[in-house]
Amino acid sequence: MEININICSSRHSEDFDCQLSPTCKGWGCRFLTTPIEEIPVTERDKAKLFSKVYREAKRKGVLECPHYRSMFIDEVLEQININ
Fold first, then answer.
1. Where are the alpha helices (DSSP H) in 1-83?
2. What is the DSSP letter of 61?
3. Cα gap 36→54, rounded to integer Å
4. With contact defined as beta carbons under 8 Å apart, do 40 and 77 qualify?
5. Higher local confidence (pLDDT), 54 or 21
């Protein structure tokens, strides 16, 4: 696990610790910064964006954090559909 993520994980106290800011949940971890360049319309578009975020999470070691669940990515993609 990347050192910054390891430190963050050890200091974790509340669910909002993982958010980008108090008002922005982001991808469920403040270390994930994949931008949404285009709103995904089709299931294929959503799958591509999911894969992009998941690869970033894997590369940065976020998937090893005990507080992170990849379902956070699905939740964000679902919220995009609602708005």
1. 3-11, 43-60, 71-82
2. T
3. 13
4. yes
5. 54
